[in-house]
Structure formats: C-alpha cells, structure tokens
Design goal:
This protein has about 290 residues and is mainly α. The chain has a domain at about 125-285. It is about 45% helix and about 10% strand. It has 13 helices and six strands. Strands 1-2 form a two-stranded antiparallel sheet. A two-stranded antiparallel ribbon has the order 3-6. The longest helix is centred in the last third of the chain and has 18 residues, at about 245-265.
Length: about 290
C-alpha cells in the first residue's frame, strides 16, 4: 500500500539517533544485550548517562492506531491540507531546496492531514533499503513458522552467526556489552564478531550498520533456500555459497527483499533494492544494478 511509501520517506528524514529510541525494556523477550545495559542504567546498577525521556518508551507503549476505519481510509493519500502545506513550506527558506518530503498527520482524535514537497523526485534509497530487508525477514520467518509467533522469536533469539567476510567493509560502530562483567564499548564490526539474529537486526536498524544489513540479508537467503532445515551449520552454509551458481544466488537475494514490497503494491519503478551493503558481500552474492 501507499502507506508504506510514507513510512519509508519518514525513515529517510529522521536520523538513526531517533530510531535508537524504540522500546528499551525488551531484553527478556529478545536477549538483545544493548537493551539490558540501558535497563541497568535506569535501575542505577550501572553509572552512565540516562537516556532522555523520549528514549525510555516501554513495549507497553506500542499502540497500533490505524487498525480501524481510519487506517482503511489511507489506501491512497488524502488531498493536500492547505494549512499543513503552508506550515511545511515555511520550513524551506532555511533548508536546501533539494529536500523531498511528505507528511501524513494521523494524530488520534483529529482528521487525517497530508502535505508534500517534490513528491515525485527520485533518490538513491541508501539506508532506507534496510527496511526492505526487515520486511523480508518478517516474511521469511512467517513462511518458516506460519502458526507460531513464539517460534519466530525463538529463531531470532537463538540463531547466532559470525560476521565473517559479510561485514567487510563497514564504517558504522555497534555496541558491545557483556552482561556478566558489564564491560561496554563501541566499534565497527569485525569478522570474528558473533551476535544473535535479533542483535544483528537491531544493529541494522538502530545504528544503520551496513555489516549487519548484509548479514541479515544473508540469513534471508538461507531461510528461503533451506526452509525447515534452517538454521544450517557453518560448513553447510559455506558449501552453499561456494557451490551455488552466482546467477541463482542473485535471483534468491533479489526475491527475498523485493517480493514482499511487491505484495504491498510497491512497484519496481517506485522501489528496487539492487545489491548488498558491503563490498565483500557483493563478491559472494552479486546484485543487479543500482537501487
């Protein structure tokens, strides 16, 4: 649906620092160690700067506000609201004219409002492409465990994988935290680093790690290929990527991240993710042109 286009645009506008503000009390559900450290800081067990108020949201604060008739009405964009459009335009005397933006106001209890600026302008999606990988992850997990959300979560928690060459080259630092010693540091991902699939996905979204994006994408390829036999051993994984023809690898890779968006009626002319996010990953799985 076109709603997702709006979400993608909004994701592009806001920085990864804002994305870092999603629920912090989910360690017991996810085993994401970064979340445990934040909780220990809030509990006073680790001395460090506390997150700002807006970054302390709980899982219980997540509310789906568009599961009613208001959400159904957004199958297409509403007409431009004159007042909101005027306020949006007022921002641009001090901003570069190259900005393309659309705003959808779905405030509870108020009418839906829409405004836009250069809505037809095209951009290279960059890190917004990580949302396509996320959609692919949800899709493949649903295929593997169609009747159990808990089994999907269990895969995310228990599938640990080493970064390997998939992480090379990357520039974004990710957090490392030892729950036993409370040692904490940040650095770029190295080949020997091991995280759960939940944590790799967290790194991909929270700090926009290109290394994590390629690693999660790799896992989608394995899910699609091995199905109920996923996860596979390190040896089986290495054999698969070494012996499978590059053309076949490319076709699977493009399918797992682009097909879910086609089902949402986002056409290829509007959106296409063409290659993995790190140079070494691109050598293992070739892409098909730009994004």
């Amino acid at each position: 649906m076109k709603i997702l286009k709006t979400l993608i645009i909004v994701f592009a506008i806001f920085s990864s620092e804002l994305v870092y503000s999603y629920p912090i009390d989910g360690y017991l559900l996810t085993n994401i160690r970064r979340l445990l450290r934040i909780q220990l800081i809030l509990d006073g067990k680790i001395k460090d700067k506390e997150p700002i108020k807006g970054a302390r949201k709980s899982i219980n604060d997540i509310k789906l506000n568009l599961t009613n008739s208001k959400g159904d009405s957004l199958a297409s964009f509403p007409k431009v609201d004159a007042v909101l459009q005027k306020r949006l335009n007022s921002l641009f005397p001090n901003l570069n004219e190259s900005y393309s933006i659309c705003v959808l106001d779905v405030t509870k209890g108020k009418k839906t409002r829409y405004a836009e600026r250069q809505s037809e302008r095209r951009f290279v999606p960059g890190s917004v492409g990580k949302l396509a990988i996320l959609a692919g992850l949800f899709t493949e997990l649903q295929t593997l465990c169609p009747n159990s959300f808990e089994k999907r979560r269990e895969i995310l928690k228990t599938r640990f994988t080493k970064a390997g060459k998939w992480a090379i080259v990357n520039i974004h630092t990710v957090p490392f935290f030892d729950p036993e010693t409370h040692k904490f540091f940040k650095r770029t991902v190295q080949q020997e680093d091991v995280f759960s699939l939940y944590e790799w996905t967290d790194h991909m979204i929270s700090v926009s790690s290109n290394a994590a994006a390629s690693i999660v994408w790799k896992e989608l390829i394995l899910m699609r290929t091995f199905g109920k036999n996923y996860p596979v051993s390190v040896e089986k994984e290495a054999e698969f990527f070494a012996k499978t023809p590059k053309k076949e690898l490319k076709e699977i890779a493009m399918s797992v991240v682009n097909d879910p968006l086609r089902k949402l009626e986002i056409d290829e002319k509007d959106w296409h993710l063409g290659s993995l996010f790190t140079s070494e990953a691109k050598k293992i799985v070739p892409g098909e042109g730009g994004s």
